[in-house]
Amino acid sequence: MFEDFTEWRRDVGSGVLLHGRSGGNGPPVLLLHGHPRTHTTWHRVTPLLVDAGYSVVCPDLRGYGQSSKPPTTPDHAPYSKRAMAADGVSLMRGLGHARFAVVGHDRGSYVAMRMALDSPDSVKALAVLDCVPIGEALARADATFAAAWWHWFFFAQPEKPERAILADPDRWYGGDPDHMGIENYRDYRRAIHDPATVRAMLEDYRAGLGVDREADDADQAAGHRISCPTLVAWSARDDLEMRYGDVLDIWRRWAVDVRSAVIDSGHHMAEEAPEQLAGELVRFLSASAP
C-alpha cells in the first residue's frame, strides 16, 4: 500500500499536525477522505493517478486518523470545514504546491468545496464525490431525509453518540478487510477504536449543523461561486440522485463550470471502483489543465 510514497506528519499552523502520505511527480492533486475513513481509503486510486503523471497528496483530515485533534469550542469552529480547508492549503504550500487540484469524498468534499471558495487562487480544479453542499442538504431536510440520514442529527448531540459508538465501534461502523484491503482496514479500525478520534469526528458533524451551514448560507447570499472547473461525481448504488433528483442543478448554483460522472459503486467508491474513479479524475484533470 502506497509503494514509493513518503509518510509524514506536517505542521499546518495553530498547533495542528496532519498525518498522511505523498508521492509521484507532475501536477499536484490533494485527496480528502470522508467519515469515518482515513487517508488510506485512497490506496487503490493513488497508484493509478501516479501512473497517469500526477503528484498525489493524501492527508488525514484534522480530527481523523493520526492527525491532530485540537480542543473544541462551544460553536465547534475548530472542526469547521473552513478550518480544515485552511489546513489543506497550508499543507500543500508547505509541500511546494502553490496551485493544485483537490478531490473530496463525503465529508472531505465539504472541505474541498470550502477550499475552492475560500482560496480560489490556490485551487485550479475541484472534484466533489457523493455530496451536495451542507447548506443545500439541510435546506431540503424533510422527514425522508431525516429517516435516511438521521446520523447527521444524532452525531450533533452532546455525549450520547460517543457512548453509543465506543460501546462497539466495529458493529457501529462495520467494514470488511477483504473489500477495503487489509492495511486500509487496519488503519481505519485503529481510528474508530480511538476515543479521541471518535469525539473529533463527531465534532465535524456538530460544526456541520452550525458554523458550516452559516458559511454556506453566507456565500449564497453574497453570490459567491466556485470559479474553477468542478467535477460532480456520485455513486450509482448510493442515494444521492434518489434524495436530490437533479444533482447538477444544485451544483450549478455553486459553480460556474460543472461536469458530471456516475461511478458504478456503492458509497465508498475509492475502495469499490478505483479504476473507474481514477479514470474519471484523470479525464477531468486533463481537460481542466491550463
UniProtKB/TrEMBL annotation:
The keyword Hydrolase applies. Coiled coil: none annotated. Residues 27-270 form the AB hydrolase-1 domain. The keyword Membrane does not apply. InterPro entries: AB_hydrolase_1, AB_hydrolase_fold, Epox_hydrolase-like. It holds the Pfam family Abhydrolase_1. GO terms for molecular function: hydrolase activity. It comes from the Bacteria. This is Alpha/beta hydrolase. It comes from Jatrophihabitans lederbergiae. The lineage of its organism: Bacteria, Bacillati, Actinomycetota, Actinomycetes, Jatrophihabitantales.
